[in-house]
Specification:
about 400 residues, mainly alpha, 2 domains, 10 helices
């Protein structure tokens, strides 16, 4: 009983050692409300039950005093008194039992509420991963369709005539090729870094024990912040390249109205742009995911509790279950990146406007330097340099 009481009091005390619930999130607000309600019950326990427990322990000790301190004859003479006191002690126990049962009603209610909140935390974490999983799965497909659509523009013999409109289309197509070179050298390489960031983040959950992970939270939180910056930078680079691509699409639309047999090329161009837009939506979701992860890890950073009902443990447990599947999806993405690179490499480079490409790459490098610092910026700039060297 003494151990049980101590564990009960430590559990109640630990609720107030949690800095993790000091945020403005709805679940955290509910948890603080629950915690404060429980504190009221604790005050009832301290002032109304704990003193009676001391009486209860005293009664047991005093009852055995009759056997420890008296001789057999003295004890025999005291039996009526001892019997009456035993009856009183029984009443004391029954009263204490009722008091405990009464206080257990609100405590069980709090426990059930806590279970609902923990379940909400678990569902929230799983929802974030599920949404990222679906987006990353779709992104590899969208990227491949984008590259195939771009590549197909050069498989069309229909634009090989001397007609004025066809010449305009070939000019448009070649301008698009320049944009494709920017994509290969300046964006595709950083996309590989993006996929690596997702895989490496989930490594922390797949490879580490809970205790090791707890010790690494400050490092993981910093990396999540860096990965979020990477996503935001990649998002900006994609939005920038969409400006000329949309311009080409509009030009293609004008040409389509001039000659009917260019309609299929326009549809391919339009499809390419739509797939690129879908890919951007995936990057945006990944940025949001890392933002949530950074926020969650920041809450956990100063939390030393390591029990199975701890929100930190629930978060780790969910993420560990999801980690291997997410890493597997990243491997599929890597394979898709190679195919995308092959598609772009199949496009003829003769006639590429290197000045146009280099100007874009300088602009992208400036964006990276403005948005990112340290190792992250270095890795991204290095990826671009390697891509340029290969091409």
């Amino acid at each position: 009983m003494s151990v049980d009481m101590r564990l009960f009091s430590l559990s109640m005390r630990s609720l107030y050692a949690e800095k993790a619930v000091g945020t403005d999130e709805e679940v955290a607000k509910e948890f603080r409300k629950l915690r404060d309600d429980t504190r009221n019950d604790a005050m009832v326990y301290i002032e109304g039950i704990l003193p009676i427990k001391a009486e209860f322990v005293t009664s047991i000790s005093e009852f055995f005093d009759y056997f420890d301190a008296l001789t057999f004859d003295e004890w025999c003479e005291s039996i009526p008194t001892i019997r009456k006191e035993a009856a009183e002690y029984k009443k004391l126990c029954m009263t204490l039992l009722k008091l405990h049962h009464d206080i257990l009603v609100p405590l069980k209610k709090r426990r059930d509420q806590a279970g609902i909140l923990m379940n909400a935390m678990e569902k929230k974490t799983k929802k974030e991963v599920d949404e990222l999983r679906q987006k990353v799965k779709g992104m590899s497909v969208d990227m491949r369709l984008f590259s195939l659509s771009m590549r197909s523009l050069y498989a069309e013999k229909a634009v090989g005539t001397d007609e004025e409109v066809a010449k305009e289309f070939r000019k448009l197509r070649d301008d698009t090729r320049n944009d494709a070179m920017v994509y290969i050298e300046g964006i595709l390489s950083i996309t590989a870094e993006f996929v690596t960031s997702i895989s490496e983040f989930f490594d922390y959950f797949d490879a580490l024990t809970f205790d090791e992970w707890c010790e690494s939270i400050p490092t993981i939180r910093k990396e999540a912040a860096e990965y979020k910056k990477l996503c935001m930078t990649l998002l900006k680079l994609h939005h920038d390249i969409l400006v000329p691509l949309k311009k080409r699409r509009d030009q293609a639309g004008i040409l389509v109205r001039k000659i009917a047999n260019l309609a299929s090329q326009f549809e391919k161009k339009k499809a390419a742009l739509e797939k690129e837009a879908a890919f951007i939506d995936g990057i945006s979701k990944a940025a949001g995911f890392f933002s949530v992860m950074e926020h969650e890890l920041q809450k956990f950073e100063n939390n030393t509790k390591k029990s199975e009902d701890d929100p930190k443990f629930i978060f780790f447990k969910v993420m560990k279950v999801e980690a291997r599947d997410m890493k597997s999806i990243c491997q599929v993405f890597y394979a898709a990146l190679l195919e995308v690179k092959t598609d772009f490499d199949a496009m003829p480079t003769e006639g590429t406007d290197r000045n146009y490409v280099d100007e874009w790459l300088e602009k992208q490098k400036k964006t990276i330097q403005e948005e990112c610092k340290g190792k992250l910026a270095k890795n991204m700039l290095s990826a671009i340099a390697q891509a340029v060297e290969k091409n």
